[in-house]
Amino acid sequence: MTNTDWNAVNIVNPQGQGGWLLVCEHASRRIPDALDGLGLSPAASCSHAAWDIGALDVAHALSDALDAPLVAGDISRLVYDCNRPLEAPDCIPARSEIYDIPGNAALDDAGRQQRFDQVHTPFHDAVARVRESWQPAQAAPVLVTIHSFTPVYNGATRAVELGFLYHAQPAAAQALLAVEQARGRYASALNEPYAATDGVTYTLEKHGEAQALPAVMIEIRNDLIDTPEKAQDMARHLAESLTQAFPIPDSEAAE
Fold first, then answer.
1. Domains of the chain by start residue, with CATH
2. For the chain, percent of residues with pLDDT exceeding 70
3. What is the 3-state secondary structure (H, E, C) of the chain?
4. FRET partner for 147 with CA separation of 20 to 30 A, picked from 20, 24, 38, 70?
5. What is the per-residue pLDDT for 97?
């Protein structure tokens, strides 16, 4: 076991001057060597259960396009899901989607606490550190978390292509949805395919709404971003939607 092997977070462009702070909790499917792959099958270790397919490529491209800081997870959510508190039953799942996770099945409270300390704590400390030291040119920065979802879940086909989620304050998600629906390229919806009641807005609330920052969680159907080329195209589209939904005031744009 090495410190590098348990690195839980990567930070990109921490001093970016755009008006957005980007977070990608489920960016990696990497499992530290000490966990012996959690006993996963090859199919499970590459599946959406292990990470949000395409989300990191989109987040990197958005960071470039928007000159935005990006905090990205570097360990699979099957080791510890950084978008969940320790008390959430699915923060270290014994089963995810159609896959059993043998390495999590017999984990006791001490083992869960150790995973929390090794993965959750450094990740969220990094988000807080970037947020607190960040001095963007835009006076009203927006927290944006980037996720992806499967086209089919539990046998049901999902028609929605882009979802915009909020925890308790809907204004930012509603603003982005209004722009998307006006543009008309993708089928978009509010709080789809998940909502706060599904327990998916932990990071959004912790680092956005609770800090008085406008905040929105973007969910992208992963067949739209499952190649680097598709992810780049989606990032270009979302960058335009974000800049339309949250324009820089004229007085700042002129500086």
1. 9-253 (3.40.630.40)
2. 95
3. CCCCCCCCEEEECCCCCCCEEEEECCCCCCCCHHHHHHHCCHHHHHCCCCCCCCHHHHHHHHHHHHCCCEEEECCCCCCCCCCCCCCCCCCCCCEECCEECHHHHCCCHHHHHHHHHHHHHHHHHHHHHHHHHCCCCCCCCEEEEEEEECCEECCEECCCCEEEECCCCCHHHHHHHHHHHHHCCCCEEECCCCCHHHCCCHHHHHHCHHHCCCEEEEEEEHHHCCCHHHHHHHHHHHHHHHHHHCCCCHHHHCC
4. 38
5. 79
Mean pLDDT of 232-250: 91
In the predicted structure, residue 193 carries a pLDDT above the cut 70: yes
